[in-house]
Amino acid sequence: MTKKIFSSLFLFVFVFLLYSCKDDHTQFTMDEDNYEAQKQDVATMEYKSPQKFLTIKKTSKKNILGQTVIKGTVFNTAKVATFKDIDLKLQFYSKTGVLLEEDMETIFEKINAGGSTKFVSKYFSPKGSDSVSVTVIGAKPVK
């Protein structure tokens, strides 16, 4: 009788361990799938609005020829998305804040998630311009 109880207990423990090992593996696979799905959701959100994830730091000065030289860096703060062909809008303002002129420019570079790229632009700015604003208006996703 004791032998029968012992073998039944052994069989129960063996089946329990076998089942629990299989369940852990399934859970691990589900976590990987869940991670990939969340990563795709983040990428989709980032690709829909690149201007939210592409930021600019710039300086500007006049050169000897009278051109406004704009040196800047575009930063990609996205976690997953890579962008290329970044479209910029340059706006030249007077001392009193009046918009004098707008220009468009494209930076033909690829910026990985978390990366950056530098650019230099030269413009003959309109007479009376005091400052220039540079903003990202769009970019193409690299998938």
> How many E strands?
6
The structure class reads: alpha+beta
Give the integer mean of the pLDDT values. Answer: 84
* Number of alpha- plus pi-helical segments: 1
- Strand percentage, roughly? over 45%
Specify Rg, calculated over alpha carbons.
29 Å
The sequence of SSEs as H and E is HEEEEEE
Shape: elongated
Report low-confidence residues grouped into runs of 5 or more: none
Helical content class: 25-40%
Biggest sheet, strands in spatial order? 1-2-5
Biggest sheet character: 3 strands, antiparallel
What does this structure look like?
This protein has a 3-stranded antiparallel beta sheet, with no helix packed on it. The mean pLDDT is 84. It has 143 residues and is of the alpha+beta class. It contains 1 helix and 6 strands, in the order H-E-E-E-E-E-E.
Key descriptive features of the protein:
single chain, 143 residues, alpha+beta, 1 helix, elongated
Quick structural gist:
With 143 residues, the chain is an alpha+beta fold. It has one helix and six strands; from the N terminus they run H-E-E-E-E-E-E. Strand 3 and strand 4 (99-111) form a beta hairpin.
